[in-house]
Amino acid sequence: MWPAIDGTRPGAFFANTHAPTDRLRPNAEAVAFHEAVPGHHVQISLAQQLTDLPLLRRVYIFDAYAEGWGLYSERLADEMGLYSDDIARLGMLSTDARRAARLVTDTGLHAMGWSRDQAVAYCRDNTPMAPGDIDNEIDRYIGCPGPALTYVPRSSPRLRLASPRCPRPVAQICSARSCATSTAISMARVASGDWVRPAGQCRRISRAGDGCSWWMLSRSSEWASDP
Known about the structure:
- The structure is a single chain.
- By secondary structure, the chain is mainly α.
- It folds into two domains: about 25-150, no CATH class; about 160-225, no CATH class.
- Helices cover about 60% and strands about 0% of the residues.
- Helix 5 packs antiparallel against helix 6 (about 115-125).
- The longest helix has 26 residues, at about 85-110.
């Protein structure tokens, strides 16, 4: 649940406890990091604070930007050492496989004429997802074409921009944060590109585009004080 834009109610993450014996427990931590901190809760809370922007850009969820952030956050949590054990880290890889399968099944269903059974069979054969999760997944994207295609492509620029081969002072990372948070994909590509180039320290990733480096921010004292 989103935090209230006026600050009167904090955000909340509700774990799905339906049919717990049929779900894969190792995925739970990756999902929590994706949805809460450092994922969508951080993303939405920061966007709401950008009061110099129009309300639409503070509250509307642009799928490609938001889900790219969420998927990158699962990897960021690993770099921060937040997963409790190696089994939970395998859960992170399991969710990666799920998002990759979404690219195939959404395209198959809506562009290639696949049946529901074909999409279910593809996920069963190529991911470690539980049968109930596969059914839910396919039904979700039958009824909602398109968002399945946004996760993997839009997380990749963040992974490149956050490369430890390109260290930056934390103050510079923080100054870029609101720039990247405030924009949708098309605008962020331009805005972040303009920010990266003048510093002259990361020329190899100047084309990366639409994100800021939470890899560095997560190691700063400011991370702990941010909402």
